[in-house]
Amino acid sequence: MFDTSKYTGKVLPGDLICPVFDLDTEDTKVLYEFLSGHGSILDTYTAPNGQSYNVLVASLKGFIEFKELLAPEEDMEDGFEQDPENKNEKTHNASKKNSDRIVKKYTVNVVGHDPSLQSCVSTEQVNNDFSNNLPKENDIVLCKITKITQQRANAEILAVENRPCVADSGLGTNGSVLSSVTGGSGAVTFSISQVSSDVGETFKAVIRSQDVRATDRDSVVMTDCFCPGDIVRCKVLSLGDGTNYYLTTAQNDLGVVFAKSLGGAGELLYAVDWKTMVAPTSGVEETRKVAKPF
């Protein structure tokens, strides 16, 4: 059994994790081969004596995790009887293989939580996973509209779908509390990170007018599609210009999922069709680019 105690622990980007090959201290016939996984890369280390070694180096902050790769089973012809001579030859080759050194392969990953702790996901673990859960291209995200102009809508990314919250904790509480938001396009519930007014930065994003819908892009009126405070389900189009992510809602399942009425004293709006939302009590109708219920 592979003893990971000499390699486990917390690492920072650039820290050495382990060599690519290592012998078992108890059985020298067993050779361990380590392959780079999530958060680790293959690099060359030069020892003080001038000799170079292939090693794995951490590329993320976190804890080291080893996963054994199981060897594929021997080829078998189901439903057919094997030739006795061929079978004997395979048995001879297998015994010869067993007499040689045994190679066991492990994938080395860097994760945000200590693998030795078998506890449930906690808020601390979510915050430690922050660096591994940045929004990427084609990710589905929830964002909050902050500003509207004729050409674009400025937003703040609150969460990436099916991942821990992404709001930077900073010096405040952003990302440390999860809340449930329901409404918008119907009976849809999302868990998003709390956006508080204290110190703490979020990811800035932009929805350009040509990325609001797939048809009639030139006739889009931004004020008819979004309003400040709306929660919008978007797809990350690109990493943008270094300041803002570029988002798009040019799909049926993308658009406003949560909104409050501007003319109805902040009453919650519900979707009627793909471009209309209504406040049930006051009956006020407002236009939005609504996400299709799923």
TrEMBL record:
Protein name: Exosome complex component CSL4
Annotated keywords: Cytoplasm, Exosome
Stretches assigned to the Exosome complex component CSL4 N-terminal domain: 13-68
Compartments, record wording: Nucleus, Nucleolus
Record's compositionally biased regions (Basic and acidic residues): 84-98
Chief location category: nucleus
Keyword Cytoplasm applies: yes
A biological process from GO: RNA processing
UniProt-annotated stretches for the region Disordered: 75-98
Top-level taxon of the source organism: Eukaryota
GO molecular function: RNA binding
SUPFAM superfamilies (alphabetical): Nucleic acid-binding proteins
Cellular component, GO, one term: cytoplasm
Exosome complex component CSL4 C-terminal domain location: 134-239
